[in-house]
Design brief:
The complex is a heterodimer of chains A (288) and B (389). By secondary structure, chain A is mostly helical. Chain A contains eleven helices and two strands. Chain A has one domain. Chain A has a two-stranded antiparallel sheet with strand order 1-2. In chain A, strand 1 and strand 2 form a beta hairpin. In chain A, helix 1 packs antiparallel against helix 8, helix 1 runs antiparallel to helix 10 and helix 5 crosses helix 6. The radius of gyration of chain A is 19 Å and the shape is globular. In chain A, 49% of the residues are buried. The termini of chain B are far apart. The chains are: A mainly alpha (288), B alpha/beta (389). At the A-B interface, helix 1, helix 5, helix 8 and helix 10 of A face strand 8, helix 8, helix 9 and helix 10 of B. Chain A: Belongs to the binding-protein-dependent transport system permease family. LivHM subfamily. Chain A: This is Branched-chain amino acid ABC transporter permease.
């Protein structure tokens, strides 16, 4: 039974990591843009949700989509004003630019919201555990699994089955030919970027309960986002998804069974996987 | 920028106009170095708030001298602390340096206090060794061992036999664990499992599951203040509150600053600490009311550290009749006793460290808010880190 509980906790943690990081997989993998400021959008979503729920009294499930929308809007504005100028610059420029944004976000939020940890007041039906056939399952974690699972399926369908998905893939693979075919490449990129930021924002709102929320959030979890994308390979959504699950379960199980080594399990997993598959689990060969 | 320029211009003018030197001696200057930004900012804000409040209540002149506080932000980075202390001592000619949010910051400034013979008043940092680093250091906050040993003694005497510990893997966490362990096992208790949590990972799920399976009487917790809330929420989520496993620990985890944000999950946690905003004395009631009125927030133990720090300086100046050199001030501070919002306290004449009551408290809901309600007192506790010698 304990094994199943650990497995469940690991899956929930992994799903959360996936929602937080998949926006980065999109920008980094599909758009080939190194956006280290990804965590800042996640933080924005978390704070929007916290303010709506705690100060204005919105229900949690109404605030969750707002976290998505707010982060997506911020993402869209920044993409149009700042990011698009850097698409054709070197990766080093992109890293320097986005890390600068992170520090601005950290100090900005620190100034406006204060540096102490923020909690979102959850409704009582999301607290505690429920009994599923003898297995004790945290309600909040169950909700994460359900929401993140649905999101993953939707995302995969959008990318592989819709017109927008094929336009995006075309725009990424050969922007010049794509524009020649009448695809508005900048618009596709702007939309994709905003969507990735929105996902991050929603992840931030969902994760506040488990990961905590303070102005240093983007720096604290940057390493986790990067591990997910590196291990998963950045050319698809399935890669980061399986990577998140693997890392989530590995991390939780490692901390349960060998607590003294707990913190290192996730890094060990990463190193082993990368030795085995240097381009990530589902990475294509390093052609680009 | 403009401010720096003006103060630089004023300083330059002072060199030429020798009369200014005489003027400067009228005032006693305190250089207050605390983190006002970064992860430790709430420490600095509470201390600064309390000092401002004290000066509003008690005036800014004492023994015929004006007491002037110069606030500097070190963001809890020891390099900054050292540079700021140096600037304050050399350029501003401060008589006292005070504040110090974290141990490394206090240690960085300690040699300067010795060299310049300037008293260094520690208002927050809590490691035992600090006061031993310079004969000019006095402390008005606490040491971590004070509360961790007391909760160990209390637990052993109150029917708690089996304990699992969960501490963050960094110096204060390890200190708290060592102090607790020594006293709890000496009292006949057994530690069935020690879990050290990495500092950067706040998902406590696997650790909590481990505890649930070990079925102890209580969990001893010490994590950085911000994570206390996460811990308590996940503790309740996993149903540990209903399985009869108590949460015990030093009171830092249940700081008044954070308590209400934790929600009802925190109810029932028993901690040992020097201060609770619910301390039932008239002086504390007035202190909490004034603080709330001025800053719209509840004072925590850091605010009390600042309040008592400035009080110690005022009283020492009264005793020396306004003589503000380091040796006279430190001599005056040794052995000083007074009533603080936290209860009766004194400065140990041998170690210059604080001697205070440690209270055992339980988190309860009072008038719709969460408070640490005190129910037992260990009187005049010295720092156990030093009494061993």
């Amino acid at each position: 039974m304990t094994l199943l509980t650990i497995l469940f906790d690991g899956v929930a943690y992994g799903m959360l990591l996936f929602v937080l990081a998949c926006g980065l997989a999109v920008t980094l993998g599909l758009m080939n843009f190194v956006n280290l400021a990804h965590g800042a959008f996640a933080m924005a979503g978390g704070y929007v949700c916290a303010i709506l729920v705690n100060r204005i009294g919105w229900p949690f499930f109404a605030a969750l989509p707002m976290a998505f929308i707010a982060s997506a809007l911020i993402g869209a504005v920044l993409e149009r004003t700042l990011y698009r100028h850097l698409y054709h610059r070197s990766h080093l420029d992109q890293v320097l630019f986005s890390i600068g944004l992170v520090f601005m976000a950290v100090t900005g939020v620190d100034y406006v919201m204060g540096s102490s940890q923020m909690f979102i007041n959850l409704p009582s039906y999301l607290q505690g555990q429920i009994d599923l056939f003898g297995l004790h399952v945290g309600r909040y974690r169950l909700m994460i699994v359900v929401i993140c699972g649905l999101l993953t399926i939707a995302l995969q369908l959008i990318l592989s089955k819709t017109r927008f998905g094929s336009r995006l893939r075309a725009a990424v693979d050969d922007p010049r030919a794509a524009s020649g075919l009448g695809i508005n490449v900048p618009q596709v990129f702007a939309f994709t970027f905003a969507f990735g930021c929105g996902l991050a924002g929603m992840g931030g709102a969902l994760g506040a309960e488990i990961l905590g929320l303070d102005p240093h959030f983007p720096l604290k979890f940057m390493i986790y986002f990067l591990i997910v994308v590196t291990v998963g390979g950045s050319s698809s959504i399935t890669g980061p998804f399986f990577a998140s699950l693997l890392l989530g379960i590995g991390d939780v199980a490692g901390k349960y069974y060998v607590p003294t080594l707990g913190a290192f399990v996730i890094y060990t997993l990463m190193i082993v996987i990368l030795l085995w598959r240097p381009n990530g689990l589902f990475g294509r060969s390093a052609a680009r | 920028m403009l401010k720096t320029f003006i103060s630089a211009a004023v300083a330059a003018a002072g060199v030429f106009a020798l009369g200014a030197v005489a003027n400067a001696q009228e005032a006693v200057k305190i250089g207050l170095i605390v983190p006002m930004t970064g992860g430790q900012a709430s420490t600095g804000q509470q201390i600064n708030n309390a000092i401002k409040l004290y000066q509003q209540k008690n005036g800014d002149t004492v023994a015929g001298k004006k007491v002037e506080v110069i606030l500097k932000d070190d963001a809890a980075v020891p390099d900054n602390t050292k540079r700021l202390a140096q600037e304050l001592i050399v350029n501003e000619k401060v008589n006292i340096i005070a504040g110090f949010g974290v141990t490394p910051a206090a240690l960085a400034a300690a040699p300067l206090a010795t060299q310049a013979k300037v008293p260094l008043i520690v208002m927050a940092a809590g490691t035992s060794i600090i006061t031993e680093r310079s004969p000019y250091i006095a402390r008005t906050s606490f040491t971590l061992a004070q509360s961790s040993t007391i909760i160990g003694d209390w637990a052993a005497k109150n029917g708690i036999k089996k304990v699992v510990t969960l501490t963050s893997d960094y110096a204060p966490g390890n200190d708290a664990l060592a102090a607790f362990k020594e006293h709890f096992t000496a009292g006949g208790g057994a530690i069935v499992e020690e879990v050290k949590v990495p500092l950067a990972n706040p998902d406590f799920a696997p650790f909590l599951q481990r505890m649930k399976d070990a079925k102890p009487d209580a969990v001893f917790v010490f994590v950085p203040a911000g994570q206390g809330g996460n811990f308590m929420k996940q503790y309740a989520e996993r149903g540990l509150d209903k399985s009869g496993i108590k949460v015990i620990g030093p009171g830092d985890v249940m700081d008044d600053d954070l308590l209400n944000g934790m929600g009802d999950a925190a109810i029932g946690a028993v901690t040992a600490h020097l201060y609770s905003a619910a301390h039932p004395s008239a002086m504390n009631k007035a202190f909490v009311a004034d603080y709330k009125k001025a800053y719209n927030a509840r004072p925590g133990f850091m605010a009390v550290g600042g309040w008592d720090g400035i009080h110690l300086i005022y009283e020492a100046l009264k005793k020396t009749g306004g003589k503000a050199d380091g040796d006279s001030l430190i001599a005056a501070m040794k052995g000083m006793k007074w009533e603080s919002p936290r209860g009766p306290i004194s400065i140990d004449p041998e170690t210059r460290d604080i001697v205070q009551n440690i209270y055992i408290r339980e988190v309860k809901k009072v008038d719709g808010e969460l408070y640490n309600v005190e129910f037992a007192t260990f009187e005049a506790v010295k720092d156990p880190g030093k009494t061993k010698k």
